[in-house]
Specification:
By secondary structure, the protein is α+β, with helices and mostly antiparallel strands. It has eight helices and four strands.
Length: 226
C-alpha cells in the first residue's frame, strides 16, 4: 500500500501511527510525503481565532476515530507549519533507507512536541542522527546528517526527484487534503476510510506501539505552543 500524506494533517497523523503497526509485514505502507497547503508561508501561519476553533473541532472529530488503546495528544497545535522543509528532509531519509523513523519523528515533533517542522535548524536536530544511520552516499548526509538546505529544500538531486514524483502522482489522483491510500491494483481510498482500512489491516495486532514516546532529550528550537 502507498499512502500520500502531510505532516500537519490530523488524519495523516493517525494514519502514520497505524502504518507503524504494519511495518515488516506483507501490508507494510510506503509513505510518500506531500504538501497539502503549499501556500502556507515558509515561516508558518498562526490562524485567526475562528480558524483555530475550526481546527480544534476537526481535531476533536478526528480523535473520535481512535482505536482502543490508541493515544493522541490532548489538543492540536495552534500554529500551522509549512511542510516544504519537512517533505525535503523526509525525502532525504526515504532515499537513505530510514523513512519510517523519520516519518515518526516528524509527526511526533509537530503533534506532540509543538515544534516548527518548517524550520531547517529544527529539522537538522530532529533528523540528523536518523539520516546518519542510513545508507546515503551523499557526504553531507552520511557524515553530518544534513537533512535540508538553509533554503528549506532537499540536499540531493535524488530527493528533489522523489518530491517531484510524489507531488505529480498525488496531483493526478486529485490532490486530496487528507490521507490518500493507493492499493496495488490502483484503487484509492481517502480520509476516514483510510483510517478504517488500516484498522482492519491491523486487527488483532498489539497496539502498544501507539503509546506516545518522549521527544529526544536534545533541545530543539522553534516550539510554538500557545
Amino acid at each position: 500500500m502507498i499512502i500520500y500524506g502531510d505532516f500537519t494533517c490530523p488524519m495523516c497523523y493517525l494514519a502514520s501511527w497505524r502504518a507503524d503497526l504494519l511495518d515488516g509485514t506483507a501490508d507494510a505502507v510506503d509513505w510518500r510525503a506531500v504538501e497539502h497547503q503549499p501556500t502556507v508561508p515558509l515561516t508558518g501561519l498562526r490562524p485567526a481565532r475562528a480558524e483555530l476553533e475550526g481546527l480544534s473541532g476537526r481535531w476533536a472529530t478526528m480523535s473520535s476515530l481512535r482505536m482502543p488503546g490508541e493515544a493522541v495528544p490532548g489538543r492540536s497545535p495552534s500554529f500551522v507549519a509549512s511542510t516544504q522543509a519537512a517533505v525535503a528532509g523526509y525525502a532525504e531519509a526515504y532515499g537513505a533507507g530510514v523513512a519510517e523513523p523519520a516519518r515518526r519523528a516528524l509527526f511526533r515533533a509537530y503533534w506532540v512536541g509543538g515544534l516548527d517542522i518548517g524550520n531547517p535548524e529544527v529539522l537538522r536536530g530532529l533528523l540528523g542522527d536518523i539520516i546518519r544511520s542510513g545508507h546515503s552516499s551523499s557526504r553531507p548526509l552520511h557524515e553530518w546528517g544534513y537533512a535540508v538546505t538553509s533554503a528549506r529544500g532537499p540536499v540531493t538531486t535524488a530527493a528533489f526527484l522523489l518530491i517531484r514524483d510524489w507531488r505529480e502522482q498525488w496531483s493526478e489522483l486529485g490532490s486530496p487534503r487528507e490521507p490518500l491510500l493507493v492499493d496495488a491494483d490502483g484503487s484509492t481510498t481517502t480520509g476516514g476510510d483510510v483510517l478504517a482500512r488500516l484498522e482492519g489491516q491491523i486487527s488483532g495486532r498489539p497496539t502498544d506501539r501507539h503509546e506516545l514516546p518522549a521527544l529526544a532529550p536534545r533541545p530543539l528550537a522553534g516550539r510554538f505552543w500557545t
